Each structure stands twice: as C-alpha cells, then as structure tokens.
Amino acid sequence: PNISMDSGLNTVIQSSPSAIDLNGRWTTASGLNITVRDGEVTGGPGTGYKEFITVSNGGRRVEMHVPEEDYVYWALLSGRGSLNWNDGDVWSRAVDCVWQPWAIFGACGGPCPQGMQQRRRDFEYLQENGGA
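Below the sequence we write its predicted structure tokens.
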C-alpha cells in the first residue's frame, strides 16, 4: 500500500489497489452484459453505455456516479462474483475456483507406511455463479 502523511491534518492516508480484481464481464439482473476495466464500465457494442466506478474497502465497496441522474449508486461485493446495488440490482459474474499452492511434505496425520509423507493444499476461494 501507499502511505502518506497529511501534516496539515495530522493524519495518515493509506491507499492500496483493490484486493479483489473487479475487471471482467458482468451480467446485470435484467440481462445486460457489461464490462468493467480499470474503473470504466461499458455496455455491449452499440449500447453507448459508459460509466465510471470507484472501488474501496479492498474491492468490497463500489460507487458509481451517474451524471444524467445526478445520483451516486453504491454496491457491496458478495463473495467474488455478485455486486449488490443499493437500488436492488445485482451484477454477477462467473468465478472459477482457485487452489492455494501445495504445502511442503510432512509427517502423516495418521498411520502411514514407513517412509511415506503427506502434503495438502486448500482452496484460495471456491467457484461462484457457474464458474469452473
């Protein structure tokens, strides 16, 4: 994270990139396909839909100011694949499961043949919304 000091306010300001990457294809509750790329939200070809979002809380909170409506919508991320907006809309995307790296070999947790060891690995996160 980037950390700076505002001496006028005697406060520490910390900013960091989104811990959860929101880039990619999303589908709204009404079936509109949209793409999020580095804070820009666009609709499919020919839709003319384009808005900008700001991301905070490690990717868990999103705000989108819509100038035509003079309104700021906000959403909370549920898991990694559902943005739940304050107007009741839900954007979703498929999220594939991701494994953590294998742990180092170690002693067995139960009886093992002599000379055998075991290792394990866990999920980093599970699939959501039809991901693999």
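The mean pLDDT is 84.
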